[in-house]
Design brief:
CATH class: Alpha Beta
Number of strands: 11
Number of domains: 1
Number of helices: 8
Shape: globular
CATH superfamily: Acetylglutamate kinase-like
Radius of gyration: 17 Å
Length: about 250
Amino acid sequence: MDEVESVVGDKPRFSRVLLKLSGEALAPENRSGLDLDALATIALEIKEISALGVQLAIVIGAGNFIRGSDYEARGMDRSTADQMGMLATVINALAMQNALEHAGVTTRVLSAIEMQAMCEPYIRRRAVRHLEKGRVVIFAAGTGNPYFTTDTAASLRALEIGAEVILKASHHVDGVYDRDPMKEPNARRFDRLTYLDVLQKNLKVMDSTAISMCMDNQLPIIVFNLRKPGNIRRAVTGQAIGTLVEGNAAS
């Protein structure tokens, strides 16, 4: 895959992308649950990207409701905790679908766990066909299996649909740092990193399984701050933003 170039303007750099959102991005400030205003704001940004002709798929985490790892640490069976988390991602996917449709964006939710009364089952060819028709596709329920995070689900789905890049939207920081910038004011932000940099330095980008999948298939990742209006568009149009993770970058 070609190295990502910096392109300033409104012309999309990518034709098909996968946007990874955290569950916290949908939550009220310092609370759990859903913030309808936040959903509406994100939906308008996604509408803008869709209007550029970009084919867009989304994977959303469930941290605004539940983190399976937290419940496992308190004694719950890991598989059960992860299954609960998968169901929470469906709630977020349906909420995002509703916000997008209110914004006038045709959207489909495809779930790795069949629940046909609420969303379509995940079928790769069906997902690609929806994208080709200009519909935004939201992948729900992770991979459908415990022990895999929504980061891994994002990498897997991006590869399956032939996405050119993963846009990893952060709710707190504007890229990847060598230390936690929320705690360390002198933390250094990286403009570019290799996949090996991320793995060897144990940087908090995505989990190691997700990073390894992207590395094996040379799928670039752009990590940026979701809170700044217009950042999704900037990432899609190739403007220098956040941190780029790919094979040929220098740390």
